[in-house]
């Protein structure tokens, strides 16, 4: 299981530069004028996880297969996008298909790079993008409400739940607040997600800074951090230019380059960690002589669901899962020593998988 993160923002904030760096491709044309990105570019990247290399070494695996995620570079939004300005309707549809949204905000001054509003103000940029998404959500809910209300009046229980969620979302949206702020119970989560609201998607504000601010941030990023807290969103500071330079370097030179800038790891690693947190994701592993592989699941998934990520037959015919904690597998030296030490457990259908578990599934065909 992977997931898809849409990269959005105003034109010329560094979206395509960041996308190119993250995916190490040149598919997204980075140009100094609005609307250079029209069709969304999608790039798959490997999820970096140092645990996988260690597991492969212990398990003497011939191949290492990391988990993967997709980034989608969506064209720059502008004021009026919800009404079709700047091909806005197409862009909003692309956002709707993503699991989470990364808002790239320009937090650097550079007279050589045109800003669509002729001023650098990341909060104003964030509000333009967020407002367009809110307006699109408002229109969507107002159109749906009449039909749902009719069903609710006919004693349709599901429709009553949906109508209540629509009304709670509409109150917030009309106040200029995101739908992700709707307070809801665990039982309401599924019908709420079925509304497919743009502003309900987990959000990550990406502060694109200059090289000098990459390690510590700057005054603009501090403003964005406060803004993110108010909007129930996460935030990271990253330099798209540094990531672009880093993507061109051999792996052996990357650490030295990062250290010279006061950074400990590539921005990609931090971005993916934040994305995992946003979506409540975690990783488990399978290890054998052929391959060591990472699999992405949701926190709280039980063993059969984890097995189903490999193949639906594994979930249908699930019997049990041999489970070894990552630390035990590495420290003891693999599956056999872990079994001998009593650290390999047979878990059943109710077992909640933990991050880093090394698993072997038994199932009926």
Describe it for me?
The chain has 365 residues and is an alpha/beta fold. Helices cover 42% and strands 19% of the residues. The protein has 14 helices and twelve strands. It has helices spanning 15-23, 50-59, 88-96, 122-153, 157-174, 189-193, 219-230, 240-247, 251-260, 267-279, 303-310, 312-316, 326-332, 335-340; strands at residues 4-8, 41-46, 63-65, 68-73, 100-106, 203-208, 234-238, 281-287, 291-298, 318-324, 345-347, 358-363. The strands form three sheets. The protein has a six-stranded mixed beta sheet with strand order 2-4-1-5-6-7, sandwiched between helices. A three-stranded mixed beta sheet has the order 3-9-8, with helices on both faces. Helix 4 (122-153) packs antiparallel against helix 5. It is flat, with a radius of gyration of 23 Å.
Uncertain ranges = 25-39
User: Based on helices, strands and strand pairing, what is the structural class?
Assistant: alpha/beta
Cα radius of gyration in angstroms: 23 Å
Helix content: 40-55%
User: What is the element string, with H for helices and E for strands?
Assistant: EHEHEEHEHHHEHEHHHEEHHEHHEE
Q: Given the structure, what is the number of helices?
A: 14
Tell me the quaternary state.
Answer: single chain
